[in-house]
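G., the chain you wanted modeled:
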Amino acid sequence: MAKVKSSKIPEYELLYLIPNKFSENEVPAITEKINKIITDHGGVIAQTEDWGKKRLAYAIKGQVYGYYRLSQISVGGGKINDIDRLLRLAPEILRHMIIKTDGKKEHKPKPVKAADNEAVKKEKVKPAPKVEEASEKKDASKVDLKDLDEKLDKILEGGDLLK
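Predicted structure as tokens:
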């Protein structure tokens, strides 16, 4: 059987990081350069989000802060590898990551029904042990120790061990 290729253009998310060495006035020009790289390779930019300037988790190439940008793009014909290569070579980009989304929507948690929620609460709630019960258990263990000591003393005094 022959494999049938889908005619749908693959969708990707591109997250890239512009280093803090560039001023806020230079960031839009860098973003335009990256958008031009994508469109020159037949890509379509659906949406671009500016996440702003943030502190990095660790220093990258001596940079502690960076400007985050997220773009949703569609690129066909295997051109994503060319875009990835050009982004790796671009000195204006500190890091980038491309993820294939295929139009998948974000996962949203299912709403929990009130009846299910109450059942879960009942299962998790356990009655706390009473203080009296806990002290009785301690007393019982003390009695057991006393009885044990008395039995040991009788055994040792009797001298039955040496025979």
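Residues 131-158 form the longest helix (28 residues).

Shout if anything looks off.
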